[in-house]
């Protein structure tokens, strides 16, 4: 514990995924917020010696501010479980499922949560023929933040069939998830855990200034307008919050999650589809979870403290259960 009697928090950030720059921004924001509230904070930029560095720091809890692999796919969660170190956000099994878009569909669709139909295809096959009628979307099976997403349109923007020399995710990944393109609007809803259980916050509409809501649009100031709360019918807002909360619970998410949607506004609720649930949502100044928390009366430092408190309570309860203490 720190001199102020508050937990010593190691903020784990950086790493080597495509989302490293975003993770560094998230981690620094979290660390500064905790320090402003009197916490002792150790910043750890993840490298291959991370286990030794965490052991040396001996924190009470790790705030996992990593994005992408290996911080979001269960690898870091498994390591921390083996070390017996409490950590924020979702655990191993949830992380393994939620980062894989096909596994997520298998977990959620049978419970009535609408997701786009699709299938995993070999990238090599795309040079021979389209996997489905255009327009369609190609995306990596296990990357977040719209990394490697391509929209293949009817006018053959990548060639028809896709050319081997056309720049796209097929050059980086052996397999891709192909889904029908859903016209319409980009919506997102955050869910956070609290003492009384999980609750969905609100709905934000994301309006890119140009193109679609890709990695650059997400993390470059001024490229996307955030409309929070979204100017949408009440039934759509209710459906987003319901689906996001149910996804959080069905997947077993902890701390905070964010579910992203596409909504065809010509089809009402029938046009709403959940695309993915993020178990390690961003905590940067442009990030959506802090923005929604603020809209619901919770400032950034309050949000960070709530995530830390949930982790400590959860791991404390788990240890009591293992020991058989009352």
3D structure, described in words:
This protein is of the alpha+beta class and 326 residues long. Among the domains are: 98-115 and 183-300, D-amino Acid Aminotransferase, Chain A, domain 1 (2-Layer Sandwich); 119-180, Dna Ligase, domain 1 (2-Layer Sandwich), CATH 3.30.1490. The protein is built from nine helices and twelve strands. It has helices at 20-36, 50-57, 75-83, 92-98, 101-108, 215-219, 234-251, 288-295, 300-323, and strands at 8-14, 40-46, 61-64, 119-122, 136-139, 150-152, 175-180, 185-194, 197-208, 224-227, 256-263, 272-278. The strands form three sheets. It has a five-stranded antiparallel beta sheet with strand order 10-9-8-11-12. Helix 1 (20-36) crosses helix 9. The longest helix is centred in the last third of the chain and has 24 residues, at 300-323. The chain is globular, with a radius of gyration of 20 Å.
List keywords for this structure.
four-stranded antiparallel beta sheet; 326 residues; D-amino Acid Aminotransferase, Chain A, domain 1; 12 strands; alpha+beta; Dna Ligase, domain 1; five-stranded antiparallel beta sheet
Distance from N terminus to C terminus (CA atoms, Å) equals 24 Å
- Beta-strand fraction estimate: 15-25%
User: Poorly predicted ranges (pLDDT <50, ≥5 residues)?
Assistant: 212-220
Number of helices: 9
Q: Characterize the largest beta sheet: strand count, sense, and whether it forms a barrel.
A: 5 strands, antiparallel
CATH architecture of the domain at 98-115 and 183-300: 2-Layer Sandwich
Structural class: alpha+beta
- Would you list the SSEs in sequence order as H and E? EHEHEHHHEEEEEEHEHEEHH
Q: What's the count of strands? A: 12
Q: Which descriptor suits the 3D outline?
A: globular
CATH classification class of the domain at 98-115 and 183-300: Alpha Beta
Give me the side-by-side strand order of the main sheet: 10-9-8-11-12
Overall mean pLDDT stands at: 91
What percent of residues adopt helix (DSSP H or I)? 25-40%
Cα gyration radius (Å): 20 Å
CATH superfamily of the domain at 98-115 and 183-300: ATP-grasp fold, B domain
Q: Might you state the CATH topology name of the domain at 98-115 and 183-300?
A: D-amino Acid Aminotransferase, Chain A, domain 1
């Amino acid at each position: 514990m720190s001199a102020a009697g508050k937990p010593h928090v190691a903020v784990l950030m950086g790493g080597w995924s495509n989302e490293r720059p975003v993770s560094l921004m998230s981690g620094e924001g979290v660390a500064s917020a905790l320090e402003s509230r009197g916490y002792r904070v150790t910043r750890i930029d993840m490298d291959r010696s991370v286990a030794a560095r965490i052991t040396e720091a001996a924190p009470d809890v790790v705030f996992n501010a990593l994005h992408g692999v290996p911080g979001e796919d269960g690898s870091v969660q498994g390591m921390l479980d083996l070390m017996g170190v409490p950590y924020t956000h979702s655990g191993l099994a949830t992380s393994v499922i939620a980062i894989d878009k096909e596994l997520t569909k298998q977990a959620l669709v049978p419970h009535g949560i609408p997701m786009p139909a699709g299938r995993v295809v070999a990238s090599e096959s795309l040079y021979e023929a389209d996997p489905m009628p255009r327009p369609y979307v190609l995306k990596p099976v296990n990357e977040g933040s719209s990394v490697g997403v391509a929209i293949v349109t009817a006018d053959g923007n990548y060639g028809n069939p896709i050319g081997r020399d056309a720049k796209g995710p097929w050059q980086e990944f052996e397999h891709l998830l192909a889904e029908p393109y859903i016209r319409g609007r980009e919506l997102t809803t955050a869910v956070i855990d609290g003492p009384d259980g999980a609750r969905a916050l609100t709905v934000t509409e994301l309006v890119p200034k140009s193109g679609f809501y890709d990695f650059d649009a997400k993390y470059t100031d001024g490229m996307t307008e955030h409309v929070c709360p979204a100017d949408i019918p009440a039934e759509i807002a209710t459906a987003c919050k319901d689906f996001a909360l149910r996804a959080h619970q069905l997947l077993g998410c902890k701390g905070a999650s964010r579910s992203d949607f596409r909504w065809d506004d010509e089809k009402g609720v029938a046009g709403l589809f959940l695309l993915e649930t993020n178990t390690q949502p961003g905590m940067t100044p442009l990030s959506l979870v802090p923005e929604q928390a603020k809209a619901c009366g919770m400032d950034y430092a309050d949000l960070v403290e709530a995530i830390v408190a949930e982790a400590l309570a959860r791991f404390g309860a788990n240890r009591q259960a293992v020991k058989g203490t009352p």
